[in-house]
Each structure stands twice: as structure tokens, then as C-alpha cells.
């Protein structure tokens, strides 16, 4: 339970935060005259600001709040997965893909990833298909809303449902107006706060290193020896190196093709700014990803994962840790309040990016093609975009309610399943569109359909079939058993198989063209 000082301080902090955000939104809204301004901005942004914006929107509440809970539950194996292999793969992918995508993106003048894919392959139907799949990103929006709810409900001792509804109404409300012009500013400020909070969280457990790294590991081992092992057979996410390394590297490479990540470089107006943008983003990202180590500190703080006699759910661990560790003394309370602000910033930054990208996709890639592009004025599209955000808010409240009431281990599993399915389907068309020439739309469409089919077949179909007729694949069956399954297994399978399908189809078409 938060103390009265923590509650009062959090209210003051929130009031200041809300005023600052509304000022920036008001400032950006005046420069948003079209759907293009909303999606890409009409302001000349600093590459450092855009880099920090990318780092903030790419990391999110999952990294600061949800994933450390997995680390608290399952130990060092989770650190290897979430703080080393996934970040390394995603950062290398980001650097390689950004420059090439930016060149193609500027050429086709795309506002969204679905639009980029449609123009790259000259297919409005394919763009529409990818626009529909982009709705899967609503699952990630739900994750962030739930994570923010957990933090604020703990810090203010309020009912989670009420907090969740207020968060959705506030964020979705102001995102109806500012768009990219305000988002880059808010993201850059949020990223600066997150950098400081990342350092605070990483150093909050330094007392446990009084006897060195080995002493720290010995403390964890005293709670449960499996916490200090490289693999954790008892977990649903980090059972072996296939799950920890291979699956996460494949996912890390593909994760960059999410629209609120890969399209961020299009905000830069000058090519000379790209390197500075990437250096800023990568340095900030690596620090952000390392925050999951705080989950180990939380496990030492709550050895039995209990607080006040009640078991701690995965998504409540970091909020409870912050409230407890930063409760004694004026300085500690002030630092704790700043950490709460950082956790809020971690969630808000990505939430803004997702609301912007998904609403723009609904407007530009679904509604506009259905009713004819020439039937809408700029002001009309802005109004439709606002209506799309209202509908998204209603759906988010409904889904978040379910995840607050009865999550399967964590809202993180729910979100990963949706988001991983989306970028599995987007991976081949983006990669082939950047690096290959003369790729037919049938090739990449087949790859996307394969990806989405394989993902959900592995996640839902194989476990259901295994219950009826046990499979004899000894290596693979452990990944489809149990009430909680790892979406990274489904996604990595989908990405690898769909890439092979795309390559075979492309080479076959190329051979036939040569013979002709």
C-alpha cells in the first residue's frame, strides 16, 4: 500500500504531467492540417529528438513494467532472452532496415506501413489486407493500458477499473488532435525521463552486490537455484536455448517492421540526420532494455512473490517494488515519485505511437479505400481519424477489462500473441520490398498468408490437436503444452516458414521469367 505522502506526491506529479502534455498537444494541433501532418508531421524535428522518440516508443511499458515481472518469476534465463538476445537482434535489424526503408518510404510517399507495402507492390488489395492485420496491434495498446493501470492504481491506492478508464479517455482524447507534431516532442521528453529512471531502477538494487556479482547470484540461488541458471525448464518462456536465443533473435529481427517503429525515420527531413538519429536511438534502447534486471531486485525484495500476505501477479511485481523500495524518507519518496513518472512515460510514449499509427491505418488504409479516396477532404479525413480513435478507445477498455480480471500469467502473453502475428505477416513484404527487385505481389501475399496461418496454427491449432492426438515431435511438444504458451515460438516458426515460402515462390517466378 502506498503511503499518504506517496499518494499526495503522485497526484501533484500527475497534475504537472497532464498540463505539460496538454500544452504540447495544443502546440502541435495547430500545425496539423491534414492526415499527412497527423501521420508524419509538418515540423522540422531534431534527429536527437526523433531518435529519443523512437527509443521511447519502441521500448514501452512492456520493458519497464511487464517484462521485469517475468524476470522476477523466472530469473537469469529471462535476462538472457529479454536483455541480451532480443535487443541485439532488434538493434542490428533497426540499423540495417532504417536506411533502406527510409529511401523507399520517401519515394512512395507512404503515411503507413500498409500503404508503403501497397504502393511498393502496386496492390491496393494487399494494402487493405495489411491494414486489417494492423488491427492486431490493439493487443499491444491493451498491454500498455493495463501496465499503466497497475502502476497508478498501486501509487494512488485506487480501483484498477476506474484508473484504466481514465487513462484511456485521457490518452486517446489528446491523441485525437496532436498527432506526430506533438508526439515527437512528448516522446522526446518522456525518453529523457525514462533514461534517468532506467539508471535509478538499475542502481536500486546495488546493495545486493556488497559481496560482488557472485554474492548477488548466491542470494538468488538461496531463494530458488533455477533463478541463476541459463535455462529455466519450469518456465513457459525460457525453457531452453532454442526458446531463449533462436526464437528471440528471429523475433528481434522482425520486431522492427512494426509501423510505429520503422516509419519513424520518415519524420526526418534530411538524409544527413539519419546516423545521428540511429546512434541516439540505439544507445537509449540498450539502456532501456537492460531495465528488466530490476526484476531480479524485485525477487530479492519479495522472495516468495507475496506482499501483505497476498500473492503478487506478474504484472503487479514492479509497481509493488517501486512503492515498497522508495517509501522511507523524503528523498526516497521523491525519487520513487520520479520513478513512477518514468514508468508512466514508458507507457505513454508507445501508447501515443500506437494510437497514431493504428488510427492512421484505419483512416488511410481501410476507410478511405472502401469509400473512395476522392470523396474525402483533408478536414473530413481528420474527423474520420478522430472517430476511429473513439472506436479504438471503446475496444481497448473492453479488452483491458478482461486482462485485468483474468490474465493468462500476464497481459504480456496476450499482447505478444497479437503483435508477433502482425509483424510475422509484415516481415517478408518489407524485407523483399527493400532488398529484392521484381518481386510479384503474389509472392509476398502468399508469404503473409503463410505467416499469419502458421502463427495461429502453432499457437492454437497444434495444442488443440495435441490434446486429441498427442504429437510425437519430442523437441517441439513442450512448447505447445500447458495453459501458458510462448508466442515467440509461434512467431519465429511463422517468420522462418513464410520467408522460405517467399524465397521459393520468388525464385520459381524468376526462373519462369528467364525461360520465357
Q: What labels describe this entry?
A:
21 helices; single chain; 516 residues; 75% helix; mainly alpha; two-stranded antiparallel ribbon; globular
Please write out the topology.
Layout: H1 4-29, H2 35-40, H3 47-74, H4 76-108, H5 113-120, H6 124-133, H7 138-156, H8 160-174, H9 180-203, H10 212-223, H11 241-254, H12 259-262, H13 274-289, H14 294-301, E1 306-307, E2 310-311, H15 317-325, H16 330-371, H17 378-405, H18 411-435, H19 441-468, H20 474-477, H21 487-515
Antiparallel strand pairs: 1-2
Helix pairs in contact: 1-9, 1-16, 3-4, 3-7, 3-9, 3-13, 3-14, 3-16, 4-11, 4-13, 4-18, 5-6, 6-16, 7-8, 7-15, 7-16, 7-17, 7-18, 8-17, 9-16, 11-21, 14-15, 15-16, 16-17, 18-19, 18-21, 19-21
Short description:
This protein is mostly helical and 516 residues long. It is built from 21 helices and two strands.
Report the strand count. 2
Count of the separate structural domains: 1
Class derived from helix and strand content: mainly alpha
Quote the average pLDDT.
86
Helix content: over 70%
From the alpha-carbon coordinates, what is the Rg to the nearest angstrom? 23 Å
Name the overall outline: globular
Number of helices: 21
Name the poorly predicted regions: none
CATH architectural name: Up-down Bundle
Strand order of the largest sheet: 1-2
Give helix and strand order, one letter per element, not per position.
HHHHHHHHHHHHHHEEHHHHHHH
CATH homolog superfamily: Sodium/glucose cotransporter
Structure description:
- The protein is mainly alpha-helical.
- It has a single domain, classed as Sodium/glucose cotransporter, CATH 1.20.1730.10.
- Helix content is 75%, strand content 1%.
- The protein has 21 helices and 2 strands.
- Strands 1-2 form a two-stranded antiparallel sheet.
- A hairpin with a 2-residue loop joins strand 1 and strand 2 (310-311).
- Helix 3 (47-74) packs parallel to helix 14 (294-301).
- The radius of gyration is 23 Å and the shape is globular.
- It starts with a helix and ends with a helix.
